[in-house]
Amino acid sequence: MTETVSGARTGVKIERVFSTEGVHPYDEITWERRDVVQTNWKTGETVFEQRGVEYPDFWSVNASTIVTTKYFRGAVGTEAREQSLKELIDRVVTTYRKGGEDHGYFATEADAELFEHELTWLLVHQYFSFNSPVWFNVGTQSPQQVSACFILSVDDSMDSILNWYKEEGFIFKGGSGAGLNLSRIRSSKELLSSGGTASGPVSFMRGADASAGTIKSGGATRRAAKMVVLDVDHPDIVEFVETKAREEDKIRALRDAGFDMDLGGADITSVQYQNANNSVRVSDEFMRAVEEGTDFALRGRKHGEEIERVDARELFTKISKAAWECADPGLQYDDTINDWHTNPETGRITASNPCSEYMSLDNSSCNLASLNLLKFLKDDDTFDAELFAKAVTVIITAMDISICFADFPTEAIGDTTRDYRQLGIGYANLGALLMAMGLGYDSDGGRSMAATITSLMTGVSYARSAEIAGVVGPYAGYARNAEAHKRVMRKHQAANDTIRTMHVADAQVHKLATKAWADVIKGGEKHGFRNAQASVLAPTGTIGFMMDCDTTGIEPDFSLVKFKKLVGGGSMQIVNQTIPRALTKLGYQPEQVEAIVAYIAENGHVIDAPGLKTEHYEVFDTAMGARSLKPMGHVRMMAACQPFLSGAISKTVNLPESATIEEIEDIYLQSWKLGLKATAVYRDNCKVGQPMSSGKGENKGTDSNVSKQDAEAVETKVVEKIVYAPTRKRLPKSRVSRTTSFTVGGAEGYMTSGAHDDGELGEVFLKLGKQGSTLAGVMDAFSIAVSIGLQYGVPLETYVSKFSNLRFEPAGLTDDPDVRMSQSIMDYIFRRLALDYLPFDKRAALGIYSAEERQRYLETGSYDPVEETGSAAELLEAPSSEVEVSPVVEVRGAPAPSLETPAAEAGQEPKKQAHTSAELLEQITGHAVDSPLCMTCGTKMRPAGSCYVCEGCGSTSGCS
């Protein structure tokens, strides 16, 4: 801080760290003009176009595309439209500078200018980003809303309930999300003052859900984001817990009846409660009852009287079973949350924002900003803690200034936020940082590194908050909560003291964090604090792409292979760029690194990579793929960081489809014991109502509630009742046949197929290898087996579904324009047979289309032929189509795997070229990534915290 001669503080201290004196940050970098064109990959439609936009040359195409489409203001094609990243950053930063000057943060104009330059440098170099509402609104004619997270409140009255609907609607309209606790509303087991029975909170959830769905469908390109919380002792808790699971059963029934139940489908709107995340707020009392196997009381809302007693374990199992069935509800641990609450004298924390990272007072909001951790990795692969701390100091100052000029959706939210000034600084790219440092995400070293960085971030934030309080005063609600606030600061400091560092790198960070917490205690005693809370770990979806981050929030790396857009159009597969750095850090020589990277490019994982030690495998474990992290690995990482956060963590614990209800129970129980504030789970393929890309692990519409044993029992029961005696349908002496020559991955062969008089395929003969060779003999035997099966009534589509997508060498490019890429000779043969002998509707059900049909889809949005031809004779007369097909990109000498292979699974569209890392991972591994398709550009989204984000356009499923 600057001081006058008398020693009075007149402004916060601004230190020049990042910018260069006498040089504007823009003048230090090279700028270039780019054309931003965004296409819906499914329809081929251009959804956005702006040419000649200006960006630094080191910004990726993806980052510039997302920022241009999402954050540039003004109508496209007019002079009012922003044309350069400079305009965007200046619009925001100059507003922050003016806010600081107007409210007494800076002693002199020179301090204000230095603040502007430091903030500009950090933003343009992608060291951090504010949350999306800042980029949407700040410096425009719109209300200056800077917050992405809101918590509302509702009381047990119709006026309050209707006001909830209205306030939520305004927040959704502005593109943000909100959460609230419904536990004040009387249960359906209680009486009204008129003598009637109350409706209960679940019935009112129905109206709010319909409102959210209507606002979403009114032109928005993403789902409304909301969180609904109910206390575990509410008498309607079982109804609340099972609500979404019952709706999932309804989705299955309607889907099986032929209705379109995909996310965004025509009929999905008839299903209720789909626009909210649901969470149960559990107490320590309840969790101890679960452990001890005792009863637990459900209490009335009006007077707190006991309504009934339930078996705690039975209720806990119902919660876990519902989460197993449909991923809802999550758990929020009430006593843990409120034990870390800095403002208990004002009121308890009862709810969270939709993604569960912001937990504070009712009718409040939080603005977020996240740092890109990988930017602070030094050349010696250690974390630059001092530089990180200096960046946090600048950023937290800017975040607090924003509250001075911000607008809010309701008067109550504005009053609470201005009185308590909740901030949510956080970070992204933790997974990439740990990998680059040679640390496993699920390892003691990885957790120690994450904990020390989180502790340093929050410690520096509160130290700066105390410093700002010395200049412009503490937050309005501090005086009544001073002792509680200081108690929580001591809890953070004590947790920092318990960190057990594992190596030099985290020891250096921890040393600085320890000093920061000492400054917090000292500064708080002297000045109080400017902010009731400082930090959270948010999903960082869109802003993560703005910063060119490999990983979002606290998440591990999604996969080892990535999809990268190229300047001038096109795209390519790349191996995660932190992998070579990690291998070098681990001691591998350049030639070994090259071989391992080439192996990863082809296989998507490190298992059996040449020369890679097995003890180093854990460094390259990812969220998805062959070596995906175990569920408790996610929980333990959250537990390592939680004691150093004011709020909580937006993250979902991913479980395989085979996970059991008991495993979910254990995750919820361990999360409570380890001190987490909230936990959400997602079991792969548990939800039906979302569109899925093709893959071997795809949700084909099977009922995930039915176990394998049950399915086998049903099948056995049917077999016992039906006697099936097949008879052979022999081919005529003279029959129509066709011979096809083919090449798959350089291997040549011939296929002759013969048909019955009605055009039905009856025989197949394959010629591969030299006569008398083992391969030729095996193919002859295989041909006879398939031919006899066909003649005994095995449908061709059964063979196609079993043998297409079978993967082995030789594989690769073919000389067939209809099947440009093949994963094996079997894959090619049965795709070709499907195209030659199956009618269009059956091929479409298998996701197999001709080149002409794929071209028609790009032009018209429909695969349907003008006139369907199905018989062998008609097919023989039909000319082959020729279309231009994009080449397969090669990476480090290894071909990108199956970028144009059509899908083999039932009811799916063809796999054309992959357009996101999620789609690429599906093609490499053959297993589906269980996430929705983007409503804006049609590509597969990927998980980010407890929501999803699109790599193609930056859209999110609900989190800003």
TrEMBL record:
GO MF terms, alphabetically ordered: cobalamin binding; cobalt ion binding; nucleotide binding; ribonucleoside-diphosphate reductase activity, thioredoxin disulfide as acceptor
The Ribonucleotide reductase class II vitamin B12-dependent N-terminal domain is annotated at 35-126
Which ranges carry the TSCPD domain?
A: 732-836
InterPro entries tied to this protein: RdRp_reductase_class-2, RNR_2_N, RNR_lg_C, RNR_NrdJ/NrdZ, TSCPD_dom
Question: Which controlled-vocabulary keywords does the entry list?
Answer: Cobalamin, Cobalt, Disulfide bond, DNA synthesis, Nucleotide-binding, Oxidoreductase
Q: EC number(s)?
A: 1.17.4.1
- Record bears the keyword Nucleotide-binding: yes
Question: Top EC class per UniProt?
Answer: oxidoreductase
Q: Kindly state a single biological-process term from the GO annotations of this entry.
A: DNA biosynthetic process
- Residue ranges for the region (Disordered) are 688-709, 898-917
- Domain Ribonucleotide reductase large subunit C-terminal, by residue range, is 147-682
* Pfam families recorded: Ribonuc_red_2_N, Ribonuc_red_lgC, TSCPD
Q: Which cofactor does it need?
A: adenosylcob(III)alamin
Which reactions does this protein catalyse?
Answer: a 2'-deoxyribonucleoside 5'-diphosphate + [thioredoxin]-disulfide + H2O = a ribonucleoside 5'-diphosphate + [thioredoxin]-dithiol
Task: Tell me which CDD domains the record gives.
Answer: RNR_II_dimer
The source's domain of life comes to Bacteria
Stored NCBIfam families: NrdJ_Z, PRK06556.1
Function comment? Catalyzes the reduction of ribonucleotides to deoxyribonucleotides. May function to provide a pool of deoxyribonucleotide precursors for DNA repair during oxygen limitation and/or for immediate growth after restoration of oxygen.
Q: Give the family per the record.
A: Belongs to the ribonucleoside diphosphate reductase class-2 family.
Q: What is this protein called?
A: Vitamin B12-dependent ribonucleotide reductase
Task: State the organism of origin.
Answer: Nocardioides euryhalodurans
What taxonomic ancestry is recorded?
A: Bacteria, Bacillati, Actinomycetota, Actinomycetes, Propionibacteriales
